[in-house]
Amino acid sequence: MSLIYTIFVPHPPLLIPEVGRGEERKCQASLDAYQEVARRIAQAEVETVILVSPHAPLIKDGMTLAVDNIIQGSFAQFGAAQVSLSFENDLVVMAQFQNLSGVVSIQGSIDHGAFVPLYFLQKAGWKGKVVLLGMPLEQSEEYGERIGQILEDLPGRYAIVASGDLSHRLKKDGPYGFDSAGPEFDQFVVNTLQRDSKKIDNLSDDLIDKAGECGYRSLRLALAAKEGAPEVLSYEGPFGVGYLVADLYHSSPLPRWARRCLTSFLKKGGSELLDLADMSTPELTGRRGCFVTLKQGGNLRGCIGTTEPWQENLALEIQHNAIAAGTQDPRFRPVRSEELDTISFTVDVLGELEKIAGPEGLDPWKYGVVVRQRGRSGLLLPHLEGVDTVSDQINIAKQKAGIPAGDSVELWRFEVKRHYE
């Protein structure tokens, strides 16, 4: 299964009730979100967590890797020696990471940047192995991509937990005082995750330095490991430090089902379709329109969808659109079975269409749009690279429908939930 989850979480020790002694309730949004992402990882049956911490020993031109057989520590330095944790190191994954250029092996106890996330994971019932990495100070994306590739080639179920706080300079009475760069940095990170995470590195070194953050590099590493649809579960800064909890990527059964459908169709010559008996995911039993998108080397390789459901359930809707995306998209030659290993699948499940009065009801990062005029209609999905404005969104949808750019149209919007393999 390879990498099935990546999350970004804060690491203030006071979130631990035995340390906070009531103060943690001032961060209730962070607590609730932390418990939720920990529950998700536990339910996903993750076998090994790769934890990237900014408080492990750091080196300028690489990453550090804990090579102890047992990863352990306690919160004694924070007045809670009774809180201790111990995990096995995943020696197979560790050995693979040791082969990475710039990785330096270290020994020592667990730091609080790793301890806090592991505390919540254990409380959620997660039991697995850990690989502990020190956050890279340079080349975060490059390390993220290489780690993602290694995990992709290994058997097992893995999660990357990127630990880090955002700006430490949000309030005058905070630990490092106030700097206007602090709120600016945090707002940029939160907004970018919700809109276009590929632009996360569009910040000046000066702003990053003035913000006094400690999680920006671990966040970028996690985002680079595998593309997803980030979900911000919470953000707050009650003590002058920004705490962000985000689900950056999680594997979905929907694209895997789409892959199986197209694979079966191509390899069996279209003679039979897959039996739906083993598709027990509740989401697949409802009726929804959906789009199946194929990409190869980051480039579009096919996309076919339905704005409203035509099949008796979503499983059949995906099956039909996956086969059509691979064999009937007029923009591309049909996919060959030997190409399938190089193609990625995403499935966009559409919400209900809602008629709106005008462009002010649109947001190209939140809503897709349907334009209609005298029997002609065009659709554009939300959250598309290069489509940054409402006018761009409407004009492209008009173009797809063959409607002149200056013509008035009826506008409909819809939300989409994007699913990645």
From TrEMBL:
Q: What is this protein called?
A: AmmeMemoRadiSam system protein A
**InterPro entries attached here?**
AMMECR1, AMMECR1_dom_sf, AMMECR1_domain, AMMECR1_N, AmmeMemoSam_A, Xdiol_dOase_suB
Under the heading PANTHER family, the entry gives: AMME SYNDROME CANDIDATE GENE 1 PROTEIN, AMMECR1 HOMOLOG
What's the source species for this entry? Desulfosporosinus nitroreducens
The lineage's top-level taxon is Bacteria
Gene3D superfamilies associated with the record: Hypothetical protein ph0010, domain 1, Hypothetical protein ph0010, domain 2, LigB-like
Q: Which residues form the AMMECR1 domain?
A: 249-421
In the UniProt record, the gene name given for this protein reads amrA
